[in-house]
Amino acid sequence: MDETRRRFAYDLYARSREHDAAVSDRLERFRNVEPPTAELLGVLIRATGARRVLELGTSNGYSTIWLADAAQTTGGSVVTVDVDASRTELAGENLRVAGLESLVELRTEDAAETLARSRDAEWEFVFLDAERPAYPSYLRDLVRTLAPRGLLAIDNVESHAHELLEFTSLIEAEPALTQTVVPVGAGLRLAVRER
User: Fold this and answer.
1) Beta-bridge partners for 155
2) Quick count: other Cβ atoms within 10 Å of Cβ 56?
């Protein structure tokens, strides 16, 4: 990531943290991933050469900046989804400032709808950072739409492990995935689809 874009991303993260500290309603917070997690996602896209990237949970576009910056180096693009139209609009503004708007398709829709409409093996990299209670219902389509050797990254698996008990049980039993949990940020589960 070039220095200007990196500075913007770090400034956006700092402003988001200030915003979140002043808001009591969890759903009104931006809840961005921590910078080390964002940087790791970018490295993973570069390392895998992923070109078809899906983000479920856009928020204000902080993580989208890191995903799109990495996709730019692979010749790829990002589709990012959020149910909140105001968040989609805000993310669009932040992506324009970062110079990445042409690489990102912003959608205001439910993640389940996006996954259901996605083709088999459509996505080479999926970042899941949405409303955790819905994750068990996503799993079948997450696996179906993940390309062979595609990578699924799921945030908050350590910080909110108690909310993910059912999902964790289901995903750990999924034979199509090889996976591990990386203790970065709030905990990141990485799962690779076998051939």
Assistant:
1) 188
2) 24
**Residue among 72, 73, 130 at smallest CA distance from 101:** 72
Joined tokens for residue 157: 């698996």
Asked if 71 and 131 count as a contact pair (C-beta separation under 8 A), the reply is no
The per-residue pLDDT for range 137-190, each reduced to its tens digit, is 999 999 999 999 999 999 999 999 999 999 999 999 999 999 999 999 999 999
CB neighbours (10 Å) of residue 16?
A: 18
> Rounded to 10 degrees, what is the CA torsion of 110, 117, 70, 65?
-20
Contacts with 111 (C-beta within 8 Å, 6 or more apart), sequence order: 56, 57, 81, 83, 128, 130, 134, 138
pTM score of the predicted model:
0.96
Is the separation of the CB atoms in 82 and 105 below 8 Å?
Answer: no
Tokens 């988001």 correspond to: 16
Give the position of tokens 């010749």.
75
Helix 35-48 to helix 3-21 angle (10° resolution) is 140
DSSP assignment of 78-89: EEEEES-HHHHH
* Integer angstrom CA distances of residue 108 from 12, 87, 131: 21, 9, 15
